[in-house]
Fold each of these.
Amino acid sequence: MYCCQIFRKTVEMYSIVFVCLLLWAKPIVNGADQEEEAVRFLDRVNKLYAEKSHEVTLAEWAYATDIKPETLAKKLEVSNELAKFAKAQWLETIKYPWKTFKNPDLRRQFKKFSILGTSALPEDKYEKLEKLIADMQSIYSKGKICAYNDTSKCNLSLEPELTEILATSRNEEELKHVWVEWRKQTGKPIRPLFAEYVALTNEAAALNNFTDAAEFWLEAYETEDFKEQIARIWEQLRPFYLEVHAYVRRKLREKYGEKVVSKRGPIPAHLLGNMWAQTWSNIGELGTPYPSVKSEDVTPYLQEQKYTPIRMFQLADEFFQSINLTAMPDTFWERSVLEKPNDRDIVCHASAWDFYDAEDFRIKQCTEVTAEDLNTAHHEMGHIQYYLQYRSQPFVYREGANPGFHEAIGDVIALSVSTPKHMNKIGLLPNLANSREADLNYLLHVALDKITFLPFGYLMDLWRWNVFKGVITEDDYNCEWWKLRNTYQGIESPVDRSEDDFDPASKYHIVASVPYIRYFVSFVIQFQFHEALCKQAGEYDPENASAKPLHQCDIYQSTAAGNLLGKMLRLGSSKPWPDAMQILTGQRIMDAGPLLRYFAPIYEWLKEENKKSGEYIGWEPSQRVCKKKFHFGSFVRKIVKNVSDIFSSNKKH
């Protein structure tokens, strides 16, 4: 989606156009004149990029909503044309001594345009990389498995069938079947493609003067110590996660028995209500703090009131309008795909799309009428709202202040939407319980989404960073993946694994080459945003001990909150993210404090509950086996490295 395209003509025609562009944009010698010329150059390039991005996004949309050879061929064709355009534009950009310009906005735009990305690869390698990613996505999107104990029914897709089974079934053998079979359909066929993808992605990073693709991906955060900041925040939040983990493990042990869930070990991944064990709220009923206090799911009310996917999105649109943000344009409703079609394969992973013409914005989502998908609708529409707010920026700034900002906006709205208070206000929760017990039930449900996600959101890119850096090699892909999942999440596979498997590829973002640390960032900063907006709306006052707590805040219909949010959104990436953060929150750093304040009541309750029950906090190493293969080439490389290290050490001494 964040791509551009050149005209669909012959290569010869491109050459004529770009030779003219290069001659037209030739820099002038004098410094002041050169900056003036640079302004004109950027104006032309931003407009060209916006035009070509519109065309390339149309082709990508056509493929994502109708996976077939013809749409794939078109997608790859325009992607290749984009690469040629980007290279020509980059060659012109680097002629300017932009680092010496006095205008900081000029320097910022040139810096962004000076990074070529994967287009830096030679044409044949660029085409190969694009084809690899498309092939991995196709395998993932077309994956289907057989039903448990019914080999005549072999058309179960991830969405909706497998997602529904993992969320609702409490048959341990059925859950194990779904977990294992999905990974057979995705990981095994994708593994041979992934190593090639890694090599080409690293090569592209090197051509952009980055050490590897890990450093290239982290460039978006514009902070030298970004990884250290993330590690520090995780350590700040880890004690809370450990309490949630210990409590959930006990409840699962009570449900499935100690033979399945041990007292001190990791939790089997297939029991947590989600294909990747990234959020656990689907099993929330097993551990509701106060079962006698009715904590109602709004899903039945959505269905009783005959909500449809389009009506769910209309509800989300109305929320944004209520805080004085922009209504969805007519084209959004005409062109979005909000339900899974029956006549073709599509990429069901929910996504929001900017077509870069300041008019066309769409969402693709295989929506089910559930509370979870209602939250997802608000999340995706948050992306669209961001697009709408910064659409007047130059093309190069039409993105979030950092990738985590984009993910946080819809979730900030969802923090208000999901409150019992809001659901009651809009008629989706008629019986509103106001009590400490009801609050704790609600907070645990939210924590099973937000807190349990944090280690997963962290380790996804820890694994890929180490793969890109060569710390994790091809012969260790799967076993190292499970080491991280055990270390950070305290979960284990339901069956032994080996290097014949490739479990990372069971997750869309791995196969689609989408960086993931943005979600960890989002899950932290959304609470900073929420706290700031709640103060602006008059819904939260930390100085007033008798005021309502942060988790009860609902910014619905607060134009003051919406105006403040809009002010930040309109910046796009025109300023470094700390500047954008400061506009909204008054802070310039990521801070876990608001998150901990939001969850303080349930955190304290969990600590008391775990202490009272004598639950072991933490986990012992998994007893599951991950079988490695013997790779002669890898063995030789390790011997050579060890010998080299010995010689290097001897030289130093």
Amino acid sequence: MDKHTIAFLLLDVAIVIAAARVGGMIARACRQPAVVGEIAAGIALGPSLLGLLPGNPDQWLFPADVRPLLGALAQIGLVLFMFIVGLELDMRLTRGRERAAASISACSIVLPFGLGAGLGLLLYPSHDTVDGMEIERLGMVLFMGVAMSITAFPVLARILTDRGMMRTVPGVFSLAAAAVDDILAWTLLAFIIAIIQGGSPLEVARIVGLTLVYAAVMFGVVRPLLAKLVAWRDRAGRLTPDILAVILIGLFLSSAATDVIGIHQIFGAFVFGAVMPKIGAEQLHREILERLEQASVLLLLPMFFVVTGLGVDLAGIGLSGLGQLLLVLVVAIAGKFIGAYVGARASAIPTRQSAAIAVLMNTRGLTELVILAAGRELGVLSDELFAMLVVMALVTTILTEPLLRLVYPDRVVASDIAAAERRALAVATAPRVMVVLRDPGGTVADLRARHRRMLDCTTGYDVVLAGVLTTPDRARTTLEVGAPVVPDFAALASAVERLNELGASLTGAGSVSVLCRFSADPVADVDAMSENASADIIVIDSSDRELGKSLHSAPVAVVDENAAEGVGPGRSTITCVVTDTRSGRTAALVAAGLALYGSRSLAVVASGSRRRWLSDLEPIAGQSVSVSVVDPRRHRDDAAAFTVRAADDTGESPAPVTVVDNTGTSEESLGDRIAGLYTAREAPRDPAASEPVENTSSPNIGTSSERH
């Protein structure tokens, strides 16, 4: 080893990191995944660009004795990347859509594989040697087929995150299909590598047999042991160095095992990621990704891009090879698009959504480069064909985002999200109450205990349980390796499961539906869910009082879970602050239903005719509910009938439930003096204003309906 080898290695590492970061920034500025720019930067440092300059600077900048060291770093980066691909493989993403996911995935593999194999036969005479050695025809044909069949799950998930498409039909089904695609494609590749490496049927059988034993050990023994990591992490409260060390030790041992077997180390990394615990492990996954990003994205993966780029000479394709390159692009794009489109249409997915799925399944990104690197290492791809396939990987990934915007524009995304939420709702036969639960974690029993009063408000109504999950701080935790949508999607699925269980326990409610969103803007998202649900009233916790003041889609009931129970013996008061409008009267009627089913007193703070308000509320007066009405503009004059006091000005316990109608009014006009900051307590009543009105008819408020 030359005495300057280490110095050159350190210099090369610095240059590669700088080039990768600049390339990634340029790609993001062009609304492309960062990996596109990083791959392009790696190619630029090789003979395709740097090598065209006088003196071949790529040769002295990356000398021959340094390249093996860069290659070793690249292999470690590949192992970490494939572990992340396996870690993100969560088959819960396919739950409820298994048949469609299988149909899309199978069609998007079978057709491209067949076309790719045919293309391999066609191109074989032009690319039948590598370094003077003849390439085995079968190996090249099979490898071309699998190279055309790959979908880059991480890049696909990144695009879904950036476009906000996680809850759309194309987002849900493409993510599920890509998960199935991962299993099928990597299994197929392992089998093909076994055929190429084995040579004789006996050796192939040995490799396949050892692979099956390895898989049985990983899923039958290692997987249950790794499940204990979740409890370990929860006890520690974070991902400790010891936990990460155990994961890395297992990862590298698994990769070494598959390399010894003869199916390449990338499979050991992928399988180890796949057997990592998934249920309840969302936070563990995010912390693993955050830790590995620092080593993988910044240091190791750029080495892989450069090692790949050093082997790509675009000038070597030549004019004669442009026709072959065009054929490669046509087969890759058309095969994947048509296959995925046919699979989606066969599952009765509408035309536009099927086209969007087909576009998404066409992205290949870094995953394709991993496949191509394995093919070159196996000696089944010539330099020219390798360069063509690298260009294909870049072009198909670059085309995904603009084609998706053309096929599935933002307005359609918003429309489909709203339509999906409306379809999720049960048929309403009574006024609809939307209960907003922020970050609904813990067990169902915990949720019931924390939100007892809010859930009591659902008795007699059709209910929508709206889970609003806090969007992770992307400025702090945006991940370039791996896709944050996957742990987020798993967290969303877990929240939906808990809310469904909670809904099943609401025996006093009518129909129960569940909606759930990640939200960086809770006001906009809660208002959107309320409009999609056609909610008559929104129920929120008092800790979200500021949120409630900003909602305008429906009247808001602010529930204080910590308020004292009574303003009178054995009962509590519901305070309703409303305007004299149609939505205000709706709010008062819903508040009346809450009072009726909770055996509470009802205090309505409203302008307009007191007699008319009492007439509207007549059906519930006398049903174990006392009703009082006060005009907020004259509340001082009506102190004998009713006292309204600011929460900050009184030591009295606040009312357990305050209903506020913000619809059609500005926050300033309703004012902090009324909108939820005022609480009420009963005083000696003015008989003319607040005596219970005799009722001779049965109430028609909050009629219970059959659960759907």
